[in-house]
Amino acid sequence: MTRCLIAHNCTVLMACRNPYEANGAIKNFCDSQQLLHFYKTNLASLNSVKNTSDELLKLDRKIDIVLLNAGVFGLPWTLTEDGLETTFQVNYLSQYYLLLNIEKMLAPDARVVFVSSESHRNIKWSLDNVLAPTVDLLSLPKDQYTSIRAYNVSKLCSILAMHYLGYRWLNTNKQVFCAHPGSFVKTKLCRNWWVYEFLYTAMKPFSKSIAQAASTPLYCAISSEVKGLSAVYFKDCQRYEESDLAQDFQLAFRVQDLTYELLRYRAASKAEILSECEEQNKGPVGEALVSS
Ligand SMILES: NC(=O)c1ccc[n+]([C@@H]2O[C@H](COP(=O)([O-])OP(=O)(O)OC[C@H]3O[C@@H](n4cnc5c(N)ncnc54)[C@H](OP(=O)(O)O)[C@@H]3O)[C@@H](O)[C@H]2O)c1
């Protein structure tokens, strides 16, 4: 995705945790380092996300595209320094927090793309849970944890967040999408357990290449064909209907309340989040932010 955006003369701001990989991308993807900037960000730490947001906010620029792409899968149960289950925080909460923090930098017609997954369909909640979701439903405690469940919950949360933002930005030109990149794409996602590594390797001849997998998120981010659309889920560069649960508008609001509750007690910039996220600033256009 970064390579494509660079090829189209975007300035890309990469929020990632690994300086070695980031510098490799800078060397490989562009001649001029002016186009690609790296912000060291560990999504397992809200404090680190806050530091990145503060650095970004110092730029006198507008952001046209936000790609929320980072993800983990197959981890054993661990808590982050913020006391939340790691997959939930890395795949959803921290990236959403980053977006809220930099919302005032978004261009009036900015596009935000959550990289989600078809596996969100595997989450089935009881009516009680849908009517009154709890923190434990999102940030799974150890006795309810499986890595697949945590992953699927995080991807469901992304789609619900998309619907919430789509509603909040209804009277603006901002657009928000979710994109499924492909299934069993052989990336580093499967690195945490040899069984997944084996499965993804076995599926490689039948699944998308990494470049192909980048196409749907990029389509959402830059295609003129999606102008005027928002809060839509895409797969194979086509509109797809997400699961019934992911379409539940009231659930989207309830999960949003929980998200704010989690951030309110943990995030250093809580006051800013709650008071400033609706603000719109004006300025020059031309940047993309990729969390990867
Ligand atoms: N591969 C698939 O079949 C598939 C299917 C559906 C959806 N997806 C989604 O596609 C997205 C991209 O995944 P991928 O397949 O390209 O996997 P990947 O190669 O493992 O990329 C995930 C990226 O997330 C970063 N990341 C993980 N934990 C982080 C943290 N704590 N702080 C900052 N960055 C962190 C990783 O950074 P490091 O390099 O530092 O670890 C890596 O660059 C994910 O959202 C994934 O859920 C993938």
TrEMBL record:
An MF annotation (GO) of this entry: oxidoreductase activity
InterPro entries assigned to the protein according to its UniProt record, in alphabetical order: NAD(P)-bd_dom_sf, SDR_fam
This protein's UniProt keywords: Oxidoreductase
Descriptive protein name: WW domain-containing oxidoreductase
